[in-house]
Every structure is written in C-alpha cells, then in structure tokens.
Amino acid sequence: MEEKEMLFQKYVAVLLLITTSLTNIFHNINVTATTRTSITKQSAITQTIRITMEHEEKITCFFESPVTANTLAASQIKSYLKDGKNYLLLPSYATLASVRFNLETTNETAAFWNGTSIQQGKPIEVNPGEHILRINEKQYPIIIQQSEHIGAMFITTDDDLDYIHSNKNNRTTGKMSLLTETGLVEYDDTLTQVKTRGNTTFYNAKKPYQIKLSQPASLLGMGQAKTWILLANAYDESAIRNKLVYDLAKKAGLMYTPNGNWVDLYINGEYRGNYLLSEKVEIAKNRIDIASLEKANEKANPGTDLSALPAFGSMEGQPGKSKGVLIPTEPSDITGGYLLEVDVL
Asked: Domain boundary residue among 111, 126, 145?
C-alpha cells in the first residue's frame, strides 16, 4: 500500500510540475499588446524610430536605443517586409514612452503618424500594434510587436550570414551582447566562433547555432562556460518541448541535464526569432564533469594537431560502421571519461 501511495505522489508531483512549467512557459513567450511599465532602467532614455526611404515604394524602419548602441554588438533593430507591411519586433526591455521620429529622405515630405502630423526629432506615440505612416500621399503600414519577460541576444558576425548558413563547417567570428528582460547587460564581448549546428534541423530555414565566447561567462544564471547552443525549436510550434524536458529531467534528478532559457535573437540587426539559449552537452567543469580524454591526448602528443590526423572507417555515421583517428601516442590512462552520442531515428 505504501508503494502505491508513493507512486501516486510521484505522479501528482510530475503533473504539478508539468502544469507549473507550462504556465511559466506560456507566460514567458507571450507577445504583449501593451507597453511594459515595470522597467525603469530606460524610462528616461530617448529612443528613436528611424525610417529610411529608398524610393517611393519602399521604406525600412530601425529602432535605435542607447542600450544597444553602446554595446559591442551594436545593431539597430531592423524591420522586415511581409505582405506589404513593415514588422518591427522589439525586445522586452524596450520602453516606448519616449520615442522620437527621424525620417531620412532627399525629398521634401509631409509625414503623418496615425493621421497626426509629425516633425523630425519630435516624440511620437508608439504602442505595440498596427500603425499607419503616411508620407505625402503614400501610406505604409508598420506593425510593432514586443516580447515579455525574455532576454535579448544581439550578434554581429564578421562574415555574411549566408556564408555561415551554406555549410555546417563554415564558421566566423563576431561580437555578442546579451541583455536581460530589464535591459541589464549580462555579456558584452567578442565571439571566437559563430556556426550553425544540427543534423535534420540544419536544413530548416530557422537554423540552430553554436557560439563560443572569448572568455567563460555565466549567461542568464547558468554555469560559466565558453561554448553555448542556440536551439531554434523549428519543428516545435509551441517552442516549449526542449525546455519542458530539461526542467522535468532536472526535477527527476538526472545528472548533467542542460539548463536553458529563452532569448529573442537578433543577428546583424535582424530578428531571427525565439531561441532557447542552452548549455552544450560537453565535458567541462560546469557541464559533464568527467575526465577529458581530449586533454589527455593533447598532453601526450605535444605539438601535434590532432584535428588534422587522417581518419579511418566510415565518417558518414552509417549503422554498423565505426570511425575514428589513430593517435600517435596514447595517454597512460584511457579508462575515461567517454561521452557517447546516440542518434535516434
């Protein structure tokens, strides 16, 4: 009887955890239609919506804030055009109480925001939702959306993003700024690596990424490390499955379960979507804390570029095949640790 009661209590605990996790998750990924008022960090900072007019048929909107402008990965947030409407997707920390208007055009223009005449450098009323900008007699719909309770990551790459997307082996360097939902800067430094990752997920339009910091850092409360993963959750429309499994595994006491937190990802000024910033599954002090044979191999073979050694076997990962490289000098202790990856079809 006691065993049944204990089992029932475990089931109840799991159900409560799932309910709590789902509530927190949907609260976190909610896109608001009202301006956040709890953020005081930027309440006195002037922010600007800058609009460039390439020709009469096309405009581009930029949201400029001193917080993003002063960080290394300084990127104005750029709008994108879809179905004739300009979408401007803003992070949680942005406050819209004091937004100024700046129109860049070579022609004499009369500009109206939601029917009200506006002047260069003057404040305009901005709220999440759809707005109509009229320049002379041409109307341009602008839709402003804003996240809630999510950090924002800004990455600028030293090579074009198309180059990184074309091959998983292509990588570049860059800069990254990570801000909390209230606008506090958690990381603001260079990146020694930006690359795509994944197997099937690599071929999705919304690609996952791996980044490597110049120095180990703790991001959004997770353990210090250099290498971090940005999961796209491209095949999960709810965007919660990976996070939910991580949380359940940690509550169940599974060792070395990765931590993860959502961020709005901007690369080179363009919004890439909601991503799960996650710890990488790797051998490291704050990750999987076991002995590293890679370090032991490097120590036993000083001056040898182990990554350049010729491979044997099948490098395609075919069933029943093996692959590897022959190490010139093996370490004295090869008992572990070993980190195995199993692909589940």
From this structure: 145
